[in-house]
Specification:
Pfam families: PDZ (PF00595), RUN (PF02759). The chain is built from 13 helices and 14 strands. By secondary structure, it is α+β, with helices and mostly antiparallel strands. It folds into three domains: about 150 residues, RUN domain (Methane Monooxygenase Hydroxylase, Chain G, domain 1), CATH 1.20.58.900; about 120 residues, PDZ domain (Pdz3 Domain, Roll); about 80 residues, no CATH class. A hairpin with a 4-residue loop joins strand 12 and strand 13. Helix 3 packs across helix 5. It is elongated.
């Protein structure tokens, strides 16, 4: 009877579970983290450590060396994956980079090619023990490659931006992006802990408090594409000052996991924050998430002169003066609503520098930013 490796048996069950869940595999799939962890265990099994080195060798170094050692000349796609992993600023360890590379290789259906090239690179393959490794055991290698081929025929749609916790865990946090127009102050008290930017408090009257897009305990992961992973004190403020007057895109990592419990890798950080700030109150995330969902609801649309325009209800207009910040809406909206004018269905065209509004009979109503609309 052919020998069996328990890791491969468990991996096979996990791959079958992924297959049974449907054609597309996303981050919310309950079997994804287990599958990735098993792949990691296979790639680590029998990996020998260098004798005269203080650096711990991991499978990331194996993949990194392939592009340097393999001279076959057919590594362009794999080289791109390795380079994208190498330059990612949210990863601080070989473990994190290896996990990012595995997720990226699954998304690009390139994992079998990585293993094939590793097997054809003797200087890297010799890092693995022939007695223990799956990769150097012919009886184990064939079923392992078969499983990788099955994975390569699946459609993985994974969020590669949500990788700041891969150094610690295969389980990733809930990641949401908030878009905010220019405003005077976001109004948040921040705390820097282990290179992460935690929100301690929302200041009443600030934009964050008004919009409820973030809550104490959440992490600001990125602002307009600038990663805040491994940040030093004050770095988020520097980024925000540099972007003053610009629209902001803020990536937020929630303290609450997908299942409603506290995201496990954050428990020790939240405990430390509560020791420093006994009044720290977490949440309420669910209400905020539903508010974000409501804001993201897409209004009805139609085509007008080759452009996509939104069908909305025109309720009236109000003079907001010269200052066009978001704060004036709190005064302008009640002014419009008090007039209690009949609504009119209009077409709203959002352009780069302004918006135009026309009624559906094509007679122009008005053309700039002083009017208040609600989605029909």
């Amino acid at each position: 009877m052919a020998p069996r490796d328990p890791l491969l048996g468990t991996l096979k069950v996990c791959v079958l579970n992924l297959q049974s869940d449907g054609e597309i595999v996303t981050d919310i799939n309950p079997h994804l983290a287990s599958c990735c962890e098993l792949l990691e265990l296979v790639l680590r099994k029998g990996l020998q450590q260098p004798v005269l080195s203080l650096v711990h060798r991991d499978y990331w170094q194996c993949f990194e060396q392939i592009t340097q050692q393999d001279t076959c000349g057919r590594l362009s796609a794999l080289s791109l994956v390795v380079e994208q992993t190498r330059v990612c600023r949210k990863l601080l360890s070989a473990q994190g980079r290896g996990r990012y590379l595995l997720r990226l290789a699954l998304s690009r259906q390139a994992l079998p090619q990585f293993i094939t090239h590793l097997l054809h690179t003797p200087r890297v393959l010799e890092w693995y023990s022939p007695e223990m490794s799956v990769l150097r055991n012919e009886a184990f290698l064939e079923p392992f490659m078969s499983l990788l081929l099955v994975l390569s025929h699946m459609d993985f749609k994974l969020n590669m931006e949500n990788c700041s916790f891969l150094d610690e865990s295969w389980i990733l946090p809930v990641c949401e992006t908030y878009e905010v127009v220019p405003c005077r102050e976001l109004g948040m008290v921040l705390r820097y802990l282990s290179g992460r930017v935690f929100v301690l408090e929302l200041i009443p009257g600030g934009q964050a408090h008004a919009d409820k897009f973030i809550c104490p305990g959440d992490i600001i992961d990125e602002i307009n594409g600038t990663s805040l992973r491994n940040s030093k004190n004050g770095q988020a403020g520097v980024v925000l000052n540099r972007l003053k007057g610009c629209p902001l895109s803020i990536s937020v990592l929630r303290w609450k996991a997908q299942d409603g419990t506290v995201y496990r890798p954050l428990i020790k950080f939240l405990q430390a924050l509560r020791i420093e700030n006994p009044t720290l109150q977490l949440g309420p995330v669910p209400a905020q998430q539903s508010a974000i969902t409501e804001r993201k609801t897409t209004p009805p649309q139609c085509l007008k002169e080759g452009r996509i325009v939104h069908i909305v209800q025109f309720l009236g207009k109000a003079n907001i003066g010269m200052f066009g910040g978001k704060e004036v809406l709190q005064q302008a909206i009640p002014q419009v609503l008090r007039k209690n004018l009949p609504s009119k269905e209009v077409l709203l065209d959002l352009k780069e520098t302004h918006l135009t509004c026309t009624d559906r009979s094509s007679a122009q109503v008005s053309a700039v930013t002083e009017q208040i609309f609600t989605v029909s």
